[in-house]
Amino acid sequence: MDYLSSGFSKVNSSHDPGVFISCLQTLSSLPYFQGYKKKSFQLLEIKEDSKILEIGCGLGQDAIALSQLMGNKGVLVAFDSSRKMIEAARKGDNETAPIQFCLADGCRLPFGDGVFDGARADRVFQHILDPRNAFAEMVRTVRDNGRVVVYEPDWGTFIISPGEKEICSTMAQIFGDTFPSGWIGRKLPSFFREEGLEDIQINPETFFTENLNLAIQIFDLVKNAQRALDMGYVSESQADDWLDGLREADKKGRFFCSYTGFLVSGKKP
Question: What DSSP letter does each residue of the chain carry, written as one string?
Answer without folding.
Answer: ---HHHHGGGGGG-S-THHHHHHHHHHHHSHHHHHHHHHHHHHTT--TT-EEEEES-TTSHHHHHHHTTS-TT-EEEEEES-HHHHHHHHHH--SSS-EEEEE-BTTB-SS-TT-EEEEEEES-GGG-S-HHHHHHHHHHTEEEEEEEEEEEEEEEEEEEESS-HHHHHHHHHHHHHTSTTTTHHHHHHHHHHHTT-EEEEEEEEEEEE--HHHHHHHH-HHHHHHHHHHTTSS-HHHHHHHHHHHHHHHHTT--EEEEEEEEEEEE--
